[in-house]
From TrEMBL:
InterPro entries: SirB1_N (IPR032698)
Stated family: Belongs to the UPF0162 family.
Domain Protein SirB1 N-terminal residue range list: 38-183
Protein name stated in the entry: Tetratricopeptide repeat protein
Superkingdom of this protein's organism: Bacteria
Pfam hit, one: Transglut_core2
Length: 268
């Protein structure tokens, strides 16, 4: 079983092995990564946190869990420009620094081991966590509580004041959605670091993990362009053209497709 197959197999388990799946994603980029060893090493962190948690009902332990993780050094990676290891879970476990989604995946793994109810929230630009039924969200980078106005402010910082907060922004994220978002993050980080082959691996995984967007086809098409694969580029541009309803985007896609070499067709 190769790393991609192992990653997908983790999604078929009950409960889903989210952190292990994310570690298999890391193993796609570095065959020396051993997910089982990484998971075993986390037991030490689990023991330290378990011994320090207050005597409270399980439903009230999510924020103390996050605070204990923060105290142990698990914090947002503030290095700029951000590098791929901020989203590769083996590196995040080693360095204790990562993107909010990577920290959330580690937190969700520990919460599951400790029977603490917790779920991921697909907030745009900054992944969040929530205790089911709570009136607030939790920042995986330290455990700060976020109420509705806090979420509006966070959204405005990420995208500007013109973007309104909607119920869609506060929806729970499934394990597959989290892995797809992680793959998109890695794809962008590898592109930013000029590693187009690694980005293509992530782009293909994005396609495999669930419903895709026009931007996913366009991003992969641009990777194929940079890797001088015009026929693969055409395939993705044509699919983007089928999906988009934006007339300006349709025109630009049509013009770009017209400049590509014609697809070879066999005559029988």
């Amino acid at each position: 079983m190769n790393p991609r197959q192992a990653c997908l197999a983790c999604l078929e388990r009950e409960p889903v092995a989210l952190l292990e799946a994310a570690l298999w994603i890391a193993a796609e980029h570095d065959r020396q990564v051993e997910p089982a060893a990484c998971l075993a090493a986390l037991r030490n962190v689990q023991g330290q946190i378990s011994a320090s948690l207050p005597m409270l009902p399980l439903s009230e332990l999510a924020q103390p869990l996050l605070r204990q993780l923060n105290a142990l050094g698990f914090q947002q990676d503030e290095y700029h420009p951000i590098r791929p290891h901020a989203a590769l879970l083996d590196k995040v476990l080693q360095r204790r620094r990562g993107q909010p989604l990577a920290l959330a995946i580690i937190t969700l793994e520990l919460a599951q081991r400790l029977s603490i109810p917790l779920e991921g929230v697909a907030f745009p630009g900054h992944f969040l966590l929530r205790v089911p039924g709570a009136d607030h969200l939790l920042d995986p980078c330290g455990g700060r509580r976020l109420y509705t106005n806090d979420c509006r402010e966070l959204l405005a910082r990420q995208f500007g004041p013109q973007m309104p907060l909607t119920a869609e922004h506060l929806r729970s994220a499934s394990a597959k959605q989290m892995l797809q978002r992680l793959s998109r993050n890695l794809r962008q980080l590898h592109i930013s670091n000029d590693n187009h082959l690694a980005a293509l691996v992530d782009a293909e995984r994005v396609m495999q993990l669930g419903p895709v967007q026009v931007s996913d086809y366009m991003t992969r098409a641009t990777l194929y362009q940079r890797l001088d694969c015009p026929h693969a580029e055409r395939f993705d541009l044509e699919h983007a053209l089928l999906l988009t309803e934006d007339p300006v985007q349709r025109l630009k896609l049509s013009e770009r497709i017209a400049k590509l070499p014609s697809a070879k067709r066999s005559i029988h």
